[in-house]
Design a protein that fits this description.
alpha+beta, single chain, two-stranded antiparallel ribbon
Amino acid sequence: MARKDDLLTLNEIADLAGVGKQAAGKWHNKARKTGGEPPLRLVAKAMGVKIPEANDRSPRYPRRVVVAFLQAVGYMNADESPMERREGRGKWAPARPTIDPRPIGQFDTEHPEAEDSDAEERDAGTSATVPTRKTFHVDRSTGRRLRYYNAHAWQIAGFGSENSFTSSRTQGRFVDPDGIDELERPYWFRETLEEWVEGAEDRKAARFAGPEPDGFTVEGQPFRLLPGDNYYAKLAAGQADQADKKKPSKQEGRKAT
């Protein structure tokens, strides 16, 4: 039985993930376009694990780092079984929420406040919550936070379809992702998605509300300045009038010729 501290070569990493050695090589040495170290090194850093053997001529990584990486990006389930691929077209995305490699202790843990996770995840035995200042939904077996990608986020965020969710994101009408994963795909934590749902009524009210008033009377009544009453509007009108007076008339133009 493999131990967590076993060191895996790139060939062994590829076999564990079910990919070719070339893919494992990229995880080892290809820097991300969005910045940061290569994926495997990024996960080791997030976990606080030293990896001096990764600099050897034949790079090796602790098995626990490799497993955490594969769980983070959607190649492996919490029980280390292979995660099935999501059906459908478009860029590959994990079939289910993945497990963030960072220990829960890296997040805010002051002022404990415990709550239960939603019934569906609890019944499935895959997630739970831990006492934290802001309750976090975590994977029950690892105790680490869950990442939600487009394929899972749209339903929790209250959208009618993944397409409408993607469209809203493209047009800048949805909250920024909580992070970009090791393979450079955006993800959200469940708490962020639930906060978005809670703010739906406020966003709707703001969308249908009129513009803000220019001020309030001493009685507290709102008022709006008409263009003629506004100091800056008057100043602009005066400047335009002065400019018109400086322009030569058509008759003056003919005399000059």
